[in-house]
Structure formats: structure tokens, C-alpha cells
């Protein structure tokens, strides 16, 4: 902790004004965020970045951007603050069954794949950049429905990963505002229970879903592999195009033979991978790993 920071902590400093956020501060912060998360902050988001920083700085009674930078990059004490800052800067907007065409595609794919494989296995699904978990639970509800309709011993598991600890805490709770249920298609509604103005994911589904903090820039260190489905939507759009390709190249390596990578429409363009073929469907952006 810097000396300046110690001087500001405690109750002595009640009123203070923040220093100027000049071009140099902006460039420094923008570079740090992109280097650590991949998130590209366009120029029109400068005010957004500044207010995110200001909220955190006010909390710690720090008035100087340089000083706050020192604080969050401090190897011993900065990690927790960094995580809070990332929470406040990431867009966590999400919904259940957000892109219906992708879920329809997945339903057809999973039915087909269950018919073609051995009776006893587990279907492994990864929801990358899962935010507060609506996507991960939607995927679990879908797999659960399909498997309950066929006579087989196949089971399934979903892992949701995100960089945001607060989003993951919400995801783990399995509790959402009741308005969120409006987007859950009727056949899946029996997977939730209503509690006052909240909904809760039923235990049968929640037991199949787990969550973990993963930065997509650190995929090399992540032991998740042999996935049947990798679902990554509305995250790559925040990255530079070359970085999107790097990330999908790494995700592609985590698919098992015959597995699918489902992205958001338009999130990568001009991308090919020697082990994958693009699925021929205009409404979804999906790639299947060759079976041979
Ligand atoms: C807009 S939400 C998308 C949620 C969900 N996939 C959907 O489509 O509804 C984007 C999520 O990506 C996460 N994210 C941003 N940068 C990340 C990174 N470097 N590694 C992992 N997750 C990240 C954010 O925390 C946020 O929860």
C-alpha cells in the first residue's frame, strides 16, 4: 500500500475532489484493462471508464488516478480491488434463452448426437462468459429436457465461467428477479420455483451446473477440455478482432471430436480452423469438430 493511500484511509478525509482524468491517465488505464482482460474500450467509453474508476476511488478515498493505478497493480494487495474494478466495468447484461435460434440449433444437435453415441456417457457443456448464470441454466434446462425424453443412461454437466466474481456469486445463488422468467419458454418453466418476486432454479437443474472464475485470456491454464458444447456469446464482441480469433482458436482445441462451438452471430468473421467446419445455418454461428 502506498504512503499516499495510507494517508487518505480512515475518516480524516471526508470531502475531497477527484483529480483531472487526462489523456495520459486514460491511455494508461485503457491499456491496463485491455492487457489484463482483452476488453477494448473505445474512445466514446472514456466517460464510462472514468466514472467506473471514480466509484472505486471514492470508496477508497483516493483522488489521484495514478495512485489508484498503483493500488490495483500492487502484487500483494491489489488483486481484490482489481477484481472489484473489473466487476464494475464489465457489461453483464444477459437473459435466459437469449438467442433462441442458437438453442434450437443445439436442441437438434444434441438429439442427433445422443442417437449416434453409446448409451452411457455424460454430455459436457461449457458456457464461456456466463455472467450471472442465466445462459448456463438455460443450457442445463435444454439438456435436461432432451435427455428426459429419450430412453438412455446419458447424463450431462454444465460449467459456467466468467471473469466477474460478483456475477458468478449471483449465478451460484440460482436466484433471479421474477421478471427474468418471462423469457423462459413455456416447456422449461417447470425448472424454476417462484419465491415472492424472485425465481429460483430447482435443485435438480442447479445440481448439474457449476461455476468458476476464468479469464478468457488465460485459457492455456484452464483444465477444461473434451467438451461436447462450448457456448460463447456476447463476450467476443468486446475484444479486438485478432484477439477474438486467438480465443476461438483456443476454445476449438477444447472440443471433443464431433463437439460444437456456438458463438454469437457476427462475433467472428473470416475465421477457419483445420479441425472444424462451419455449420450451414444462416441464423446461428456454429462450428463442429470433424468426426474423423
Ligand atoms: C454481456 S455478458 C454475456 C453473458 C452471456 N454470455 C450472454 O450472452 O447473455 C459478457 C460477460 O463476459 C464477461 N467477460 C468480460 N471479459 C472477460 C474475460 N476476459 N474473461 C472472461 N469473462 C469475461 C463479463 O464479465 C460478462 O459477464
From TrEMBL:
InterPro entries given in the database record: Bact_Chemotaxis_MeTrfase, CheR_C, CheR_MeTrfase, CheR_N, CheR_N_sf, SAM-dependent_MTases_sf
SMART domains: MeTrc (SM00138)
PROSITE patterns: CHER (PS50123)
Protein name in UniProt: protein-glutamate O-methyltransferase
Entry annotated with the keyword RNA-binding: no
Gene Ontology BP terms: methylation
Enzyme class at the top of the EC tree: transferase
Alphabetically ordered keywords of this record: Methyltransferase, S-adenosyl-L-methionine, Transferase
Reaction catalysis annotation: L-glutamyl-[protein] + S-adenosyl-L-methionine = [protein]-L-glutamate 5-O-methyl ester + S-adenosyl-L-homocysteine
EC id: 2.1.1.80
PANTHER family reported for this sequence: CHEMOTAXIS PROTEIN METHYLTRANSFERASE
Pfam families named in the record: CheR (PF01739), CheR_N (PF03705)
Gene3D superfamilies membership: Chemotaxis receptor methyltransferase CheR, N-terminal domain (1.10.155.10), Vaccinia Virus protein VP39 (3.40.50.150)
Ranges for domain CheR-type methyltransferase: 23-292
Coiled coil: none
GO molecular function, one term: methyltransferase activity
Amino acid at each position: 500500500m502506498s504512503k499516499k493511500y495510507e494517508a487518505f484511509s480512515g475518516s480524516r478525509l471526508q470531502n475531497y475532489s477527484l483529480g483531472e482524468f487526462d489523456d495520459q491517465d486514460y491511455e494508461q488505464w485503457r491499456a491496463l484493462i485491455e492487457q489484463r482482460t482483452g476488453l477494448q474500450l473505445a474512445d466514446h467509453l472514456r466517460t464510462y471508464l472514468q466514472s467506473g474508476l471514480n466509484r472505486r476511488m471514492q470508496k477508497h478515498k483516493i483522488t489521484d488516478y495514478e495512485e489508484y493505478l498503483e493500488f490495483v497493480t500492487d502484487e500483494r494487495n491489489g488483486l481484490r480491488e482489481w477484481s472489484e474494478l473489473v466487476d464494475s466495468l464489465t457489461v453483464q447484461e444477459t437473459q435466459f434463452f437469449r438467442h433462441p435460434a442458437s438453442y434450437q440449433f443445439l436442441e437438434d444437435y444434441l438429439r442427433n448426437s445422443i442417437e449416434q453415441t453409446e448409451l452411457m456417457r455424460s454430455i459436457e457443456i461449457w458456457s464461456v462468459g456466463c455472467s450471472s448464470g442465466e445462459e448456463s441454466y438455460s443450457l442445463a434446462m435444454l439438456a435436461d429436457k432432451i435427455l428426459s425424453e429419450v430412453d438412455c443412461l446419458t447424463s450431462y454437466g454444465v460449467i459456467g465461467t466468467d471473469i466477474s466474481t460478483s456475477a458468478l456469486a449471483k449465478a451460484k445463488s440460482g436466484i433471479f428477479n421474477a421478471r427474468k422468467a418471462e423469457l423462459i419458454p413455456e416447456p422449461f418453466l417447470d425448472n424454476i420455483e417462484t419465491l415472492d418476486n424472485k425465481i429460483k432454479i430447482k435443485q435438480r437443474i442447479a445440481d448439474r451446473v457449476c461455476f468458476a472464475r476464468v479469464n478468457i485470456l488465460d485459457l492455456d491454464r484452464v483444465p477444461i477440455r473434451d467438451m461436447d458444447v462450448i457456448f460463447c456469446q456476447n463476450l467476443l464482441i468486446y475484444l479486438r478482432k485478432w484477439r477474438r480469433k486467438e480465443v476461438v482458436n483456443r476454445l476449438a482445441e477444447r472440443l471433443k471430436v464431433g463437439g460444437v462451438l456456438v458463438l454469437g452471430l457476427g462475433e467472428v468473421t473470416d475465421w477457419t480452423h483445420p479441425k472444424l467446419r462451419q455449420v450451414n445455418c444462416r441464423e446461428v454461428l456454429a462450428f463442429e469438430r470433424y468426426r474423423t
